[in-house]
Amino acid sequence: MRGVLIALASLLLVGMTACSGGEVEAPTPQGRSMAETAGAPMPEVEEAQPATTLSVGEAPIVNSLALSPREPTPGAPITAVVDASDPDGDLLRYVFTWKLNGRVVREGGDASITLTDLGKGDELVVEVVATDGRNQSAPMRARARVANRVPVVDDVAFQPEGAPRAGDVVVATPMARDADGDTMGFEYEWMVNGSVRGRDREFDTRGLRRGDRLTVRVTASDGSSESRPFTSREIRLGNTPPRIASLPELQTESGTFKYQFEAIDADGDRNLRFFLEQAPAGMEVDAITGLLTWKPNAGQTGVHPVEIGVLDGSGEGTTFLFEVTVKAEAQAPANAAE
């Protein structure tokens, strides 16, 4: 630097001597002279500082991950519930990887998934990673097994169809379904007029009467779970027509032959009436007592069909058919029931 100042001073001196036309006044220096500058200390220059390194922050942390519901079912939404934090307070974004039985079925920002092709026992796994745009958390996983689906009873059919009658055996046939295709078993609870009377699939209505109310409560089981009990529609026992008990023994009195018929009515009806649907001439029956009488004449030999019937107060009834054979020599009938 000093060498440069000396050279400048010499150059100024040469310039002044070279001018013609007399003495030229040296120009007045403005400010501090170069000499003064040369002798003055240089201004202090601040040392260059290294560039400040910006912190990239700390990685987010996934505190917990769970699946809701814990036992997923086909066709129902499954949601990953995440609890995560960021030491720097940054907003977080999540990346989910969904796997079914080890196979990736979805990847991205969806926290929920709905799968229709799930089967009982399938394993569903979700993995989540949280990121603040610069750093990401360690992955965390949650897993669940597809639950057993509970069977459902939709209805109960009855045999015989329509209104069964007292004395009928009623059979219940559940109409049920199991989404997993499991084999189902059933429990039955028969109720008559609100009181439990049986626990088998078949129910014998002997001893009941017309108008009694009959229902059955059915529960299905797949071996793991039971359905909600299903109560059938109520059925009322219809009228049961009376019937002839059997062919009575023949009684003979003064050439008149008698048969004392008896009738059975499951409903307990007392106003029963006997009648003859088919009979040989001269044969009669007492409508109230059921006593049948007949005195055959000489021209009534041979086989005679007889059909006797009985009616209840509702006008329903049954008939009983048998045959009477009259022999010529003794005119004594021999009968055969059908």
Helix content: under 10%
Oligomeric state of the chains present here = single chain
Mean pLDDT: 84
Q: Compute the gyration radius: what is it?
A: 56 Å
> Largest sheet, if any?
5 strands, antiparallel
Label the structural class.
mainly beta
Which class of the largest domain in CATH terms?
Answer: Mainly Beta
Which overall shape is indicated by the principal axes computed on the Cα atoms?
rod-shaped
Listing every helix as H and every strand as E from the N terminus to the C terminus, the arrangement reads HHEEEEEEEEEEEEEEEEEEEEEEEEE
Strand content: 35-45%
Instruction: Compute the separation of the termini in Å.
Output: 151 Å
Number of domains: 3
Tell me the CATH superfamily of the largest domain: Immunoglobulins
Explain how this protein is built.
With 338 residues, this protein is mainly β. It has three domains: 85 residues, Immunoglobulins (Immunoglobulin-like, Sandwich), CATH 2.60.40.10; 85 residues, Immunoglobulin-like (Sandwich); 95 residues, Immunoglobulin-like (Sandwich). Helix content is 7%, strand content 42%. It contains two helices and 25 strands. The N terminus is likely disordered.
In short:
The protein has 338 residues and is mainly beta. It contains 2 helices and 25 strands.
List keywords for this structure.
338 residues; Immunoglobulin-like; 3 domains; 4-stranded antiparallel beta sheet; 2 helices; 25 strands; 42% strand; rod-shaped
